[in-house]
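Weekly sync, protein design subgroup
Attendees: M.S., D.O., the rotation student, P.L. (late)

Item 1: inverse folding check
M.S. brought a backbone from last month's batch and wanted to see whether the design step gives back something sensible before we order anything. D.O. pointed out we never logged the input encoding, so this time it goes straight into the notes. Structure tokens as presented (500 positions):
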């Protein structure tokens, strides 16, 4: 995760404290029974005498023993090969006696060719059947049918940051633009359709760790490693969209290699774009890296989460600190607000996340959710009464606010989960992973799809965050990663759910 005052890609990634376990592997050579014995009276020392070597006698003796075992293994294989050849010759003689020959060729070769061809055909059919049975659901679900649009389509790539992108968000008002927060100390606003950079915010002195937009006004809230959160205004004009290129492609479930070097980014940074350098309001009450910030419903208050183990609630108009939310035992990793109620959820490295209730102006209550075994990287609200939490323990859990004792669904994955997002209309969970994967699940924990990850598209380093922008019959999903780029995907939700 980001470090205070900004960092390079290596140091920022190292701050995440990945738990990499090393397993010791031992190689043992199996001793085989052999009729061959060392000649009587010949000792190993005698066999080694007269040989010019600087190796110690004990080591040479051990090597000789090992090579002897290898030799016996090859001898056994050789004997087995001879026996097989005899059986093949016997079979060919029988086939020749029955008149099963091949015209214009040697009978034994013809019989062997016929048998080999039959075996190859059987093996090929078995492989095809096994492959069809084991192919992931996403491959079949993303195949385009005649006259239909693919379920997953690359929309645009947004490249211009000089360091990894931690967070991204889509504006809630017109014009609809994409915002990205990067370790290069800047936040950029992008045209979704054209991929052109529209504006740069350069007011922070550290890594920009999150970005969120005001629900009704053209204002952005960013959190930074410089221990502050900034509120700043923006004005952008969308460029005239050009005819879209033919970039549709089916999702490749099994391609995960890249021809490009890790960290290499095509294209150049944004050219001369308007730059905002001064914040409208600066929130300064934290004593550590501010890792995330969000607007409360209505946009009159904001909440920020920090590595100082506290979350702060501020008045936007006066920048006054209203509440300091303490209780976590370790650094906070994320905070999120409910879309329609005065509820806040904060997640932490202490393996828990907490629900803060501000609906009663006189008091605020807190509930602790315990269910993960490692850092809770994010916890987000859905439109209903659910919270979805993701963790470095490679699980995602769905919780009911009315019953917080245990999750109602658990998703188990093969990699640590970063900042998740849930679509508002269809309630589909998008999971970004350390292993560069992005997977889609429903609220019951059923896997729906996996986004492409190949040498032609997808992220080349860990995916840090996802964000939805829903439209009529389809929606856009945006992802960002430590490969310095954000990617927009067009997801055909109705067709996706129909495949389910």
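Designed sequence read out in the meeting:
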């Amino acid at each position: 995760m980001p470090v205070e005052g900004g960092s390079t890609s290596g140091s920022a990634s190292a701050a995440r404290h990945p738990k990499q376990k090393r397993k010791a592997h031992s190689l043992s050579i199996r001793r085989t029974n052999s009729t061959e014995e060392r000649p009587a009276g010949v000792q190993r020392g005698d066999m080694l005498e007269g040989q010019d070597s600087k190796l110690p006698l004990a080591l040479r003796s051990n090597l000789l023993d090992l090579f002897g075992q290898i030799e016996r293994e090859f001898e056994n294989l050789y004997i087995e090969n001879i026996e097989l050849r005899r059986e093949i010759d016997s079979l060919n003689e029988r086939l020749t006696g029955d008149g099963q020959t091949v015209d214009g060729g040697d009978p034994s070769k013809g019989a062997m060719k016929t048998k080999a061809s039959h075996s190859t055909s059987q093996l090929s059919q078995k492989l095809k059947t096994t492959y069809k049975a084991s192919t992931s659901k996403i491959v079949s679900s993303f195949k385009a049918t005649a006259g239909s649009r693919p379920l997953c389509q690359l929309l645009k790539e947004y490249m211009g940051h000089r360091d990894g992108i931690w967070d991204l968000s889509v504006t809630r008002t017109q014009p609809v633009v994409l915002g990205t927060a990067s370790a290069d100390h800047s936040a950029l606003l992008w045209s979704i359709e054209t991929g052109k950079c529209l504006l740069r915010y350069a007011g922070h002195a550290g890594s920009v760790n999150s970005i969120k937009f005001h629900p009704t006004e053209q204002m952005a809230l960013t959190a930074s490693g410089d221990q502050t959160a900034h509120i700043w205004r923006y004005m952008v004009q969308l460029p005239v969209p050009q005819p879209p290129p033919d970039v549709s492609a089916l999702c490749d479930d099994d391609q995960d290699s890249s021809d490009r070097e890790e960290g290499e980014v095509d294209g150049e940074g944004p050219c001369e774009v308007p730059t905002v350098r001064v914040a409208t309001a600066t929130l300064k009450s934290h004593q550590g890296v501010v890792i995330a910030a969000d607007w409360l419903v209505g946009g009159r208050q904001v909440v920020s989460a920090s590595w100082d183990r506290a979350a702060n609630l501020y008045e936007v108009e006066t920048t006054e600190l209203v509440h300091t939310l303490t209780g976590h035992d370790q650094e906070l990793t994320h905070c999120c607000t409910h879309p329609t109620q005065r509820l806040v959820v904060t997640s932490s490295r202490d393996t828990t996340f907490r629900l803060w209730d501000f609906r009663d102006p006189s008091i605020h209550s807190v509930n602790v959710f315990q269910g993960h075994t490692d850092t809770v990287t994010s916890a987000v609200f859905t439109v209903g009464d659910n919270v979805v939490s993701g963790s470095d323990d490679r699980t995602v859990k769905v919780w009911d606010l009315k019953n917080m004792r245990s999750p109602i669904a658990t998703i188990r994955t093969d990699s640590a989960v970063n900042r998740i997002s849930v679509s508002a209309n269809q309630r589909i969970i998008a999971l970004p992973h350390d292993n560069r994967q992005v997977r889609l699940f429903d609220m019951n924990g059923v896997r729906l799809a996996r986004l492409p990850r190949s040498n032609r598209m997808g992220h080349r380093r860990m995916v840090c965050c996802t964000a939805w922008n829903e439209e009529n019959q389809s929606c856009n999903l945006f992802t960002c990663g430590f490969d310095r780029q954000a990617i927009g995907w067009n997801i055909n939700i109705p067709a996706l759910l129909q495949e389910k």
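Discussion: Confidence is low (pLDDT under 50) at residues 6-42, 101-116, 131-147, 247-269. The helical segments are 9-14, 44-48, 57-97, 107-134, 137-141, 493-499.
Action: P.L. to compare against the previous round before Friday.
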